[in-house]
Amino acid sequence: MSNIPDLAYWIFYIRRTAAMPTLTDLKDNPDYAAFTGTVLYRIAVNAENGAFWKYINLGKVAGVSALSVNGRDAGVQWYGRRVYRIDGLLQSGQNVLEIKVVTTMGNYMKTLKDNGIAQKWTNEKRQDQPIQSMGLLGPVILY
User: Fold this and answer.
1) CB distance 36 to 104 below 8 Å
2) Which residues pair with 69 in a beta bridge?
3) Tens of pLDDT, residues 40-55
4) In a domain, 125, yes or no
5) 26 — phi, psi (to 5°)?
6) Does any domain span residue 16?
7) Is residue 55 a part of any domain in this protein?
8) What sign results for the dihedral spanned by CA atoms 111, 115, 117, 119?
9) Residue 8 sits in a domain of what CATH number?
10) Which residues are CB-contacts of 83 (< 8 A; sequence separation ≥ 6)?
11) Domain count, the chain
12) Parent domain of 92
């Protein structure tokens, strides 16, 4: 079992490309707290000396996740543990992992203060509800 190394940077795409040294909850970043849509995370990992993992566990994911390894689809998961089988998708040397996370519209709808319907759906009993977690939170583990 091995964690994705801390020295590796996650590259994520929301409207623009940015480097993310560690996975964080997008709700905690003011630039993305009201985002709705698909976030693409990309990282390269090396499978050297026969280190071919069979599974990847994405850890905590806030949204629907889809994984591809070296451009090959590994599946989509809507709920539960985000564990994907990846044996047969890895190659010797560098491998590119791409994880797409589709967020809900709730946090965006909270910003529509003049929209009564949006407020009704996102605020329980007419009280402000907290912003919901979004994105890939990890930790991501290969085993």
Assistant:
1) yes
2) 72, 97
3) 999 999 888 656 799 9
4) no
5) -65, -20
6) yes
7) yes
8) positive
9) 2.60.120.260
10) 55, 56, 57, 58
11) 1
12) 2-114+130-142
